[in-house]
Amino acid sequence: MPHQISPSPYADDRECSVAELQTISFAKLASCDPEEQHRLMIAAEQDGFFYLNISDLESKGLWSDYQGVLDVMASWFETPMEEKVKFAYGSDVQGYKPLGLQTGATEKSKDGFETLRVAQQGLDWTVKPLPGQVLASKELFNDFINKSRMHVLSILSSLSDATGLEGEERYERSHRDDGPSNSSMTFHRYPSRKVRDSDNVGHNKHTDISSIAFLFAQQWGLQVPARGAQPEDDAWDWVQPKAGHAICNVGDSLRFLSGMRFRSVLHRVMPVAEMEHSHRYSIAYFCRPVHGTMFRDSEGRMISCDTWFSHKFDIYRATHEEQRKNTILTGGIESAESRSRIHSSVVV
């Protein structure tokens, strides 16, 4: 079980190009510190990705909860496939997703991860129930989900403060607790090379559906475009895992709700040296707006967040060729024309 931060994505001493991301203090956000709120706003506008320090008392033991649920999930992922697929409901918010249902990080490949999703209230569902190992630790998982949500709502509230929003215009109002949503906690395992097919490669580049993605990862693999790089450069920086920190990023929904002010960033997951012999794990809470929230998407349409959610998952499962025909996969960060041009130049 990986509880130690891996020293490098590479097996040798090669230099590693690492993304320079801001670190935001959750303790300061919780106290409504205006300077920290401003720093958060700048990070959301310029980088779209940032670290959130969750090691202080204000985080109420979230990092410890993370390590506890990681132990449970690492054990469950070792369950035989015939047992895991009993929870494969075909749902994008609850249940199991096997390897290979989406595109991978290289052309013609399939994805290299399996996932168990838990809907916001999914621990209580009797329809599409969760595995017994998860339900046996229901209190721990409930605490972990609720604390993660509390952190994300604090981020949204801080962005509302920093941008001067009031009333129903505030971002957290589109994510209120009394409204149903597609928010979910997802547990990912990227199996080691020893137990997966060579055609299953990482996670294809994409922007997230969510307003905020709140990621826990102690292993390398996550990449973002290199600072200043153009799409045709295909240049990527590694995102360094940090103990006691969540990796947060703006997703499509918040980008659209902000009128494109905040930056939803492309990212992908690539295999690293450690995965020759070890599995890679990550856990992400995806906070999404309440059902019926409207915004203008990257195709210029006024649609509900629910429709965007459905379209995005459909395009995740499409072929690489189909994905290049619109802006949905990359949230408008790359145009369909530019991605087709890039692909053509690579093929030639």
Automatic annotation (TrEMBL):
Residues 180-289 form the Fe2OG dioxygenase domain. It comes from the Eukaryota. One of its GO terms (molecular function) is oxidoreductase activity. Residues 167-203 are annotated as: Disordered. Residues 167-179, 194-203 have a biased composition (Basic and acidic residues). The keyword Transferase does not apply. One of its GO terms (biological process) is small molecule biosynthetic process. Keywords: Iron, Metal-binding, Oxidoreductase. Belongs to the iron/ascorbate-dependent oxidoreductase family. This is Putative 2OG-Fe(II) oxygenase family oxidoreductase. It comes from Aureobasidium pullulans EXF-150.
